[in-house]
Amino acid sequence: MAKLDINSKYRMNSGYEIPILGYGIYQTPADIAEDVVAHALATGYRHVDSATAYRNEAPSAAGIKRAGIPREQIFFTSKVPPRAINYKDAAKCVDETLSKTGLGYVDLYLLHAPYGGKQGRLGAWKALAEAVEAGKVRSIGVSNYGVHHLEELETYIKEVEEKEGKGKAGVLSVNQVELHPWLARPDIVQWCEKRGVLLEAYSPLVRSTRMDDERLVALSKKHNKTPAHILLRWSLQKKFVPLPKSVTKSRIEENANIYDFELSAEDMKSLETGEYSPCTWDPTTSKD
Ligand SMILES: NC(=O)c1ccc[n+]([C@@H]2O[C@H](COP(=O)([O-])OP(=O)(O)OC[C@H]3O[C@@H](n4cnc5c(N)ncnc54)[C@H](OP(=O)(O)O)[C@@H]3O)[C@@H](O)[C@H]2O)c1
């Protein structure tokens, strides 16, 4: 694979670029978010994954400003919360993020989960597409979408495009889902890859619950790297965009130190567990 470094980016279906390593801030308390985000940016991360539901958009934006890096070099994501997946609330949510953060625009806005029923989901998507037209948001996507949710959205986009023209119903750039060796989601990954939809890997460290797994420990010894490095490298080599979270400064640095080694095809194979073991919620299977 092409040599990656901390400045590597992928181009999304929207035409905009996304840094391939993100810094996740779920469960990062608001009173420390400014400090840890500024530390992550000083370490070299340029991509911050927030959400309305995390209640730390404003202090994260303060951390971005404190870091003193030009706005156009930063990639900031937020999400419409699960309880607001409908047209009106999604539109309001984007405006609130803009006023809370003062960032001028949001790089990526996602629907946090496929809730709200079909009408709610498609309405919320329409609101995001309009936010792009209005210059409030650059790229849009979804999170926790299973293949059946993705197909519903694709059908809607095609129907609108037939009537109104290409790009008129928004461009799907990202699906953010839990992804790691114990949840490799081949069905969702294949669907997205076929359409150039990038996969963002959340909980890429499996919330630190598998660090003593023997396969990880063996690779860790082989490469003289930590189990966290092995997990993040697995994610990068799958062409995902991993979003490791840490509030610990030494770990923020550790998690960015993943560009000086490569897992072999055999190493990658040793991490094929075939398991379907989410470490958190799993809305991808929701049926309504
Ligand atoms: N869209 C969604 O529904 C969704 C759901 C979950 C997560 N996410 C996104 O994905 C991000 C990451 O997921 P996550 O927070 O669930 O889990 P994660 O990144 O897999 O794991 C975070 C946990 O691992 C610990 N940790 C971090 N670096 C470590 C290291 N090098 N060695 C050992 N332990 C380490 C952290 O501890 P400390 O913080 O104490 O250092 C924290 O307890 C979130 O912050 C969020 O941005 C999205």
UniProtKB/TrEMBL annotation:
Q: Which GO terms describe its molecular function?
A: oxidoreductase activity
**NADP-dependent oxidoreductase domain ranges (all copies):** 27-272
Q: Which UniProt keywords apply?
A: Oxidoreductase
- Where in the sequence is the active site? Y54 (proton donor)
Site, Lowers pKa of active site Tyr: residue positions: K79
Where along the chain is substrate bound? H112
PROSITE patterns (UniProt xref): ALDOKETO_REDUCTASE_2 (PS00062), ALDOKETO_REDUCTASE_3 (PS00063)
Output the Pfam families linked to this UniProt entry. Aldo_ket_red (PF00248)
Q: What InterPro entries does the record point to?
A: AKR, Aldo/ket_reductase_CS, NAD(P)_OxRdtase_dom_sf, NADP_OxRdtase_dom
Similarity-based family = Belongs to the aldo/keto reductase family.
- Specify the protein name: NADP-dependent oxidoreductase domain-containing protein
Which organism was this protein described from? Coniosporium apollinis (strain CBS 100218)
